[in-house]
């Protein structure tokens, strides 16, 4: 093995960001052979008149800079604008069986898909198909179903508002609410958990709130990697002396020390800013105990006659305080510290920061949502904020840091397996058909239906469903049960290789590319994680003349499946203003005058009622909701059990692997690692770099096992380990999820170490 490719662990001692980030940006543009094109693209990214970054959902700042992108946005763009192409010759060369043996990284590096392909079982290859034949095949399969509920319509969060809206109309006119979407594995606890509490399943802050906050909490979110542009806000807050509390089982590098790649002076002097003022080294699943401990400190202070609760706000706007107080005061410090793994002294210190602050923001990510009680855990975050009136005040609020660039928008415009009856009435009135009224499938329901054989067709609007879902082997088998699988995509991925009897790959015009129709150039819109809607206009020519815009694909699928439809699909397909007019009609409260308002180059903000202290809950109040106990994951009676969090490296975008490195965590040329506490290693007789297997602790008779993982001695709390998604998804059982949202508990998989039987290459441990 060449030295260059040797897998290695080499702790990263520099601040995050800085020259490392600048260098990585240049490197990825060169790797994809798009130095000039990519640099030109970066100038238009997140700028008025340009396109929205295809990476994360973090908003643009109010004061625009000439450059508004980050290292990982540059990777996303470089991989989208890449020079590499997959042509029909590629598919002629490789059978699907052969391609299955390749890594996700290798598949990604083959480049952009350039023409529609159909699976040919006689040769086990994808072969070219015309668009007309592809749509005819989809129409035939959909019309042949006994019931519309036998089809699953997946959406990944990169899909723009106009496309997602039409897709939701097509599917409802077809007759089902089966809308599994990536949000079901992501921020669904936000969407389902927060409405009973504050009346909306979205975040309540806007960008300017960072300027007014007096304390910021970053909980279970790896900002420097997954929403790097937010680092600017944290750096600015820190420079103002605002305390930043980091709650995470991993000391994420960027949240400890950061150099702003756009700060010329800091770059030149190799300076950096310390970010977190308090690092709370929580056990996996220990956050609930911390939040309850903090609330206990507040209630104790209240008992002492201190003026710590926002009495007026509570009296005027909330319900349920007494029940909450009783629950919290019933929690003992011994349990709180044991379950959180954090000392009472530190919880008191953090509570003190919260008490002193007149405006607090709590940001969170997958570290909170992907637990068995993720939804109810978030309600406790809301409780904590409500106690001090941290809604409807500058500098305060709850901030779910969303994933995909339009995942929030997709839900807003109808990608929802549990739509409200009022919404369905508006669809009926706007389109003149009766939509289905019963709830449809989320991701886990969809897999169950495939396993049971009741689902026959799967259509994937973007994403990589099969690689993102739990229980890899079982899910693969479920997918292979289908009659037809359709992958609407920019890049080849595993989802195209684990397919039904018939299968199609339909390549699309990407976010950074120009959409041209008979009515001229079109643009689409995106809603970011803070509910700002902005236009996105691509700047590059499409990758090939044989790819179609996603919106056209939706319309032509609809025309093929619904030959008697009265919906003017052929008109929507060419003129996106007509789609926006329909969105305005279905959502008059938030989208009135859409086509007019979107002319503002900065876009507009969708109303978030809690910002006005208006609560769209049944009782018209914000509700303190009680969650008994301190555990967010069911305890497991196994002394050898470790909790595994499956996380992202710095060089991946979900299932898309940019490289096998994770710079800030010091990992190079491998993704098969497990970060573990030194004492947990010693207890198991493991040396740094030892190769192990992991096995899930479950009692359903299924053995879930991943082998060939190198252990890394890492500052993890006792009993907590971490490793990369999607490689470790085989360990995540399909029935291990949050009941309220259906979100798999990917951050707390109970596992034990077992002997390795694989011959994995050794991991070199450097200084
Ligand atoms: N570059 C890049 N950007 C991305 C993505 C990407 O893959 N690459 N993905 C996008 C998507 S779809 C999403 S949803 C977001 C994901 O962004 P994040 O939410 O940051 O996702 P993760 O990397 O899965 O893990 C988050 C953090 O949770 C911590 N954690 C694990 N368990 C616990 C726990 O019990 N408690 C606490 N407090 N913390 C815990 C981990 O240590 C890690 O720091 O990013 C989006 N942006
Ligand atoms: N164990 C574990 N599992 C997880 C998670 C975890 O933390 N741990 N995280 C979960 C989360 S938060 C999420 S969001 C899901 C992600 O699940 P998905 O959203 O399904 O997965 P992605 O990897 O983002 O999808 C990548 C594919 O999207 C296609 N694509 C990219 N751009 C475009 C485009 O513009 N148009 C179209 N049509 N296609 C495009 C490309 O072909 C690419 O291969 O995974 C979930 N699964
Ligand atoms: Mo996500």
Automatic annotation (TrEMBL):
Keyword 4Fe-4S in annotation: yes
Required cofactor names: [4Fe-4S] cluster; Mo-bis(molybdopterin guanine dinucleotide)
Domain Molybdopterin dinucleotide-binding, residue spans: 642-749
Single GO BP term: cellular respiration
The keyword Iron-sulfur appears for this protein: yes
InterPro entries reported for this sequence: Asp_de-COase-like_dom_sf, MopB_CT_YdeP, MoPterin_dinucl-bd_dom, Mopterin_OxRdtase, Mopterin_OxRdtse_a_bac, Prok_molybdopt-oxidoreductase, YdeP_MopB
Pfam family of the protein (one): Molybdopterin
Keyword list, A-Z: 4Fe-4S, Iron, Iron-sulfur, Metal-binding, Molybdenum, Oxidoreductase
Molecular function in Gene Ontology: 4 iron, 4 sulfur cluster binding; formate dehydrogenase (NAD+) activity; molybdenum ion binding; molybdopterin cofactor binding
One cellular-component annotation, GO: oxidoreductase complex
Domain Molybdopterin oxidoreductase: 112-484
Family note: Belongs to the prokaryotic molybdopterin-containing oxidoreductase family.
Name this protein carries in UniProt: Formate dehydrogenase
